[in-house]
Amino acid sequence: MALSRREVKFFREEAALLDTLYKKKIEGWQKLVDYYDNNFDQRIRDLEPNEIVKIPRFYPLVRDTIASIAFNYPSMFFTVEDDDGAGQPISDILERASAAYMKLAKLKPHIQQGLFDALFCEVGWLRLDYNPPGDDLIPPYIANDAMTEDLVVVNRVQPGFVHLDPTTPPHMLGHGRYIRERMWVPTKPLLDDPQI
């Protein structure tokens, strides 16, 4: 599907705008992470940096959030409207199946990092991919041994690499005209593809 010249011009202008906008956002996010890591750039007169115990104001709040049940034990919840009540409720079976899938797909670290990202960067991004069996991945993706074959996998995407349309309302992500993701792409599959 080729873009028209007008669409190409629009997306190039938007890309330049997003680069400028997100450069400032990433600097702000990095300051918050530095505060969390107790890296401060302020000095206190007559005290050496190693003599000061620095705890940011939001540190206890972040620790409470990270230590919560959602961080340690992520789970999925289902509401089944037409459960006939015969035998075991379907919602319990679905929740057990989803818990087994989360263990099989090694989702816990991705969910933890997504929650941590949301604390500092407004949104934690998780992307759904499919890891087919063997080496049959669709370019630009390459085989990844960390993912289970023939299964839907969840990947955490670094927040600085996902750029929303600037006109998107903060509480309605679906209203954006586009979402741009910056990706590292191996060039060999692209060079071998006769369509490109």
The percent of residues in helical segments reads 40-55%
Number of strands: 4
Oligomeric description of these chains: single chain
Query: Which structural class fits the helix and strand makeup?
Result: alpha+beta
Global outline: extended
Number of helices: 6
Average pLDDT confidence is: 78
Termini gap: 12 Å
How would a textbook summarize the main sheet?
A: 2 strands, antiparallel
Order of helices and strands: HHHHHEEEEH
Radius of gyration: 22 Å
Strand content: 5-15%
Please mark out the parts with pLDDT under 50 across 5 or more consecutive residues, or reply none. Answer: none
Enumerate the strands of the largest sheet in spatial order, edge to edge or round the barrel.
Answer: 1-2
